[in-house]
Amino acid sequence: MKSENFETIAIRTQTERSLHKEHSSPIYLTSSYKFEDAEEMRALFANEKEGNVYSRYSNPNTSEFIEKMCLLEGAEDGFATATGMAAIFTTFGAFLKNGDHLVSSRSVFGSTHQLLTNVFSNWGVTFDYADLDKPQDWEALIKPNTKMIFVETPSNPGIDIIDLEFLGDLAKKHNVLLVVDNCFATPYLQQPIKFGAHISIHSATKYIDGQGRVLGGVILGTKDLIADVIGFARHSGPALSPFNAWILSKSLETLAIRMDRHCENALKVAEYLEKHPKIKLVKYPFLPSHPQYNIAKKQMKQGGGIVTIVVEGGIDAARKFMDSLQMFSISANLADTRSIATHPATSTHSKLTEEQRNEVGIEQGSIRLSIGLEHINDILADIEQALA
C-alpha cells in the first residue's frame, strides 16, 4: 500500500524484512559486508552493482533513515552524517573550492559561523552575510564566483524567516546552489525543496530524534548533487553510526504527533509572554507580530517549537529568570521532549563578537526557549514563577 500522507510514510517505510520476519527493523551493527565472490566485490566497488560495501559508505539502518527523509522532504537522495555540523561541513566541502564565494544569512548557528570565518576562509572560500529581513539586498551580493546561497529559516536563535520561493528564484536566475538548514522546521512543517532549494540539511540531533539521545545529521537533494556529497563524504568519513540511524528512523514514526504538540505549546507560551510586562520582545513565526508572519504562514505548516524572548533588564535579569526555572532544563540543546532554556550570548553564540550578536538580534537579555511536550499548564506555571 502506497500513501502520500506524512505520518504513514514515516511509520511504514523500512528495510526489507529478513528471514526472521521481524516487525520492527533490526540494528545492523556491522562495519563491513561479505561478498559472494571476487566478481561481486569488484562490481560493487566499481559502482556497477548496488549494495553495501562498508558501513562508512552505507548500512541498512542509514539507508532506511535516508529513504524516509527523502520521501518526507521531497528529495531524490541523501547522505546521513554523524552530526548536524558534519552535514553542513560536508555540504560546504563537497561544493566549495578555493576561489569560490558564498552568500549566507547573517543569522546562522555559532558553529556554522566558525566554519565560514575560521575554516573555509583559510581554504580560499570567501563569503558575504545578508540579513533575512532585507531580501532586497541579497542579489547585489552575488558575484561571478558565487557558488552557493546558504540560509537558516527559521534562524537560530533569532527566529527570523526569509521567503524560500524568493531565494529559489534568485538561485535559479544566477545558477547557484540554494542550501537550506531546515533544522528548526523539520520536513513536517516545511519542505524547502518544493520552493526551489537544491539541498536541505538537518541536524537530526534535534527534532528528528526529539528526545535528546543521539547525534546525527542528513543532507538531502537531487541524485546528481548527492553523488558529489557522497564522493566527498566517503573519503572524509563523517558517516552516521548504524545504532544512531536506527534510533532516528524509529523517531521519525512519532515526528508528526510530537511536532503538533511542540507547536501547540509554543504558540501558547508565545501568546502568554507577549503580554507579560517583564518581557521586552517575543519572536515566534506564527505570532501576528512577527515581522515575517505572512511568509511563515505561506511556507510553514505551523510555527515550530522554539520561542525566543528578550527579558527586560539585560543579562542580570536573564540569569535570574533562568536560575529561577524549576522544571525547564538549562541546556545548550533544543528540540527535546523536555522544555529547555538557553542563553545564546554566553553559550551557543558566545564566539561571536557583541557587535555580530547585535546584528542578528542576540541581546544580553535574549533567551531561547525550546518548548517541550510537558502539560502546557506546567510549562506556563514554571515561566510565570520564574518571572515573578
UniProtKB/TrEMBL annotation:
Keywords: Amino-acid biosynthesis, Aminotransferase, Methionine biosynthesis, Pyridoxal phosphate, Transferase. GO terms for molecular function: carbon-sulfur lyase activity; pyridoxal phosphate binding; transaminase activity; transferase activity, transferring alkyl or aryl (other than methyl) groups. Catalyzes the formation of L-homocysteine from O-succinyl-L-homoserine (OSHS) and hydrogen sulfide. CDD domains: CGS_like. GO terms for cellular component: cytoplasm. It holds the Pfam family Cys_Met_Meta_PP. GO terms for biological process: 'de novo' L-methionine biosynthetic process; homocysteine biosynthetic process; transsulfuration. Signal peptide: none annotated. PANTHER family: CYSTATHIONINE GAMMA-LYASE, TRANS-SULFURATION ENZYME FAMILY MEMBER. This is O-succinylhomoserine sulfhydrylase. Pathway: Amino-acid biosynthesis; L-methionine biosynthesis via de novo pathway; L-homocysteine from O-succinyl-L-homoserine: step 1/1. It catalyses: O-succinyl-L-homoserine + hydrogen sulfide = L-homocysteine + succinate. InterPro entries: Cys/Met-Metab_PyrdxlP-dep_enz, O-succ-hSer_sulfhydrylase, PyrdxlP-dep_Trfase, PyrdxlP-dep_Trfase_major, PyrdxlP-dep_Trfase_small. Transmembrane segments: none annotated. Its cofactor is pyridoxal 5'-phosphate. Homotetramer. The keyword Amino-acid biosynthesis applies. It comes from the Bacteria. The keyword Transferase applies.
